[in-house]
Protein 1
Amino acid sequence: MQGKNVSDIIEKYLKKILAEDSEVEISRSEIANLFNVVPSQINYVIKTRFGIPNGYIVESKRGGGGYIRIEKVKLLDNLDIINLIVESIGDTLSYKEGKSIALTLLENDIINNKEVNIILSAINCKTLNTGNKTIENNLRARIMISILNHLKYES
Amino acid sequence: MQGKNVSDIIEKYLKKILAEDSEVEISRSEIANLFNVVPSQINYVIKTRFGIPNGYIVESKRGGGGYIRIEKVKLLDNLDIINLIVESIGDTLSYKEGKSIALTLLENDIINNKEVNIILSAINCKTLNTGNKTIENNLRARIMISILNHLKYES
DNA sequence: ATAATGAAAGTCAATATTAGTCAAAGGTAG
DNA sequence: CTACCTTTGACTAATATTGACTTTCATTAT
């Protein structure tokens, strides 16, 4: 979240706009130029910081008049988004992705700060470590899905 | 306890900042350089002097713009109860036992009903099933202990 | 209409830049 | 001497940056 690397700065820039507008539409090359980075870094920023787990949906178009549009989704307006998140998990989940999901739930007032911490404790790398990363990620996915499914009915 | 060794000096340095700011963010290599030690010694200092028992939480990020952030947290007054429960768990925990722990926490106003349900979702038999009951119970113990440890403080 | 062209964005893998782990070696207190 | 703590460094892991190559789409030329 700090500003020592360009990806974080670009993330902040975009989120600042999204804090007011619920949607941004950018030209990849323009933004890349603005921050003096290679165009594909914009894809990197989007992929790592604006996925469904983070509460964003991204659309884009190539060719002439191309664009990238980032939309902030609201879980309360549309509980189906939780299903999207569950789908995006599939059967494997890293801690980082799990954390993004928990923070998205927090932002949408589905859980509070204490509950974020409970969830993060449960899916923690140290906690879930079994010596096998694949098994760990499968387990984390199952735990997160179980929690999400429960939240669907209780909130 | 005095500054005869570098680890103590680094500890003091960081705690002096934390006495005013409740949070420090450092670059591992910079601090290592500042005190003329190998980078991994910073990890040693953090591990031995800034753990949860000491009232600190540590977050970090690798790669470009990486950092280590140390946050001082406020320990809560339910410490004794939670410590007792943690000790009673050991390294194995059945779902039934886990459920009674969650209910004990509820009775003591350490968590609320929703939080009980989140915990139960996480330690559920179906969620944690790996085909091996022993492993499942070990895992459940680790998850519960991790959650309990985080319930000791506020962030 | 169809094909060629150019202007976007996407993918992926190599490289760079951090921090983490672990165990061996070196000190120090009792 | 022994047990514990500190220091060191080789190896590992995660994250960021870069650029060559690919795909998609609108426009222009035939």
Protein 2
Amino acid sequence: MSCELEQKLSRYTPLSNDDRQELRRALGRERTIVARTEIPAESGDPSAVYAILSGWACRSRQIGDNRKQIVSLLLPGDLCDPNAFLLQRADHTISALTPVTVARISGAMLREVTTLNPSLGLAIHREGLATAAVQREWTVSLGCRSGIERLAHLFCELHCRLKAVGLATETTCPFPLTQHDLARMLGQTSVHINRTLQELRGLRLVSLRARQLTIHDLTGLAKMAHFNPVYLRFTAG
Amino acid sequence: MSCELEQKLSRYTPLSNDDRQELRRALGRERTIVARTEIPAESGDPSAVYAILSGWACRSRQIGDNRKQIVSLLLPGDLCDPNAFLLQRADHTISALTPVTVARISGAMLREVTTLNPSLGLAIHREGLATAAVQREWTVSLGCRSGIERLAHLFCELHCRLKAVGLATETTCPFPLTQHDLARMLGQTSVHINRTLQELRGLRLVSLRARQLTIHDLTGLAKMAHFNPVYLRFTAG
DNA sequence: CGGCTGGTTGATTGGTTTCAACAAGCGTGG
DNA sequence: CCACGCTTGTTGAAACCAATCAACCAGCCG
């Protein structure tokens, strides 16, 4: 169970040993990206995807000269289609927030594996649905959650996603994002993120120190965030 | 060219007469939904999708008792997967904003048609990519565009999408949304939408009367909105 | 040590919400 | 037919949340 992708996909539908072996076979060309640099588009194969093996990355979009919005976070076990940005290379980038390792899955390999192993195909399809649901939920957060609710919701989402791939305990998870990153994700300034963070700490809900998030009251946090994990589509277990 | 879906898909990749015929064959069970009511989930076939034949609909998400966010708009020619909300029926609904007619495409039919007609498969795949890009762009708008920029961007997006299916002229398009709808889309109150709308009119960029949008200065509007249509993935023509 | 990044704090400004009232359009029923 | 209610749009004043600007602190690393 070394591979987070394998672990995550098995949370969408049960995978046999054969499925798991095929998945490993599909992973090619591993590469490392240094923190705070852009992950270059895969030239040649427009239907290839990257699997994030370790580290955190993000999709972001620049508006004008001094505005930048992080539109999604990519965690270990996530799939990202760089083809989605082939057409818009000018203004949409995927970049590493920490040191990141990725493995390429070619379009041909993807088709081969998903037709030979329907369970894998189903799991990958559900992964796509979950990704879309996360994106919608970010829209909801930005559209109608208050500052403190947004932050609470993000913490719930990330804790849940990381726990699904074995990278979080019941109460803690790694949290390499800076307050500036959080600000660009949640549509606020880092100054205000800072104050909101203090408020959450004051309410004894979470604390964030030394790149680690500790959740003191998950129920309270979820309630404040109006967080309902069903949209992430993980099955129990 | 009566069907908007056909017209839209042909904007992603050229379609042969056979492709078009197959697409028509795939459309089943047409049904009508009255304005301001929910479109019920398709029970039974979780991989079936709906094609919007006419009218405007939206996906929306309720938070608490009095907050509601419209997360996406569904226009004629759009596909929507009601399976995406099977798992979260409680809090995510698709509802008609105007009278709407939809046609069901069963999961089996979808697979059959896309394997027999690769061009159709490609076009539908690209449609999915474009939908995801639109969702990301809404995230960007809510995250870092000002009130007036958001409204300008939405107008550009909708005009472009409607023009792609032949429902808009160079300068006008139907616009059945109320200011309250706009507010729930753009994360603001209808009062503020009202004032922003007046500002856009004052700048001679657009006017909105009698359920019709008139764009007086598309270049100016796009500039104000930081609108770049490439993300919609329509090919020229 | 110096310089850098990331975090913290305070004072001020400003964009939006909220609340409240009112006008216009429209379909319905007395 | 007009009255009535309902939805949609419009306007003003006050309150508030978050941005801005600016300064400062802590930790880290070359």
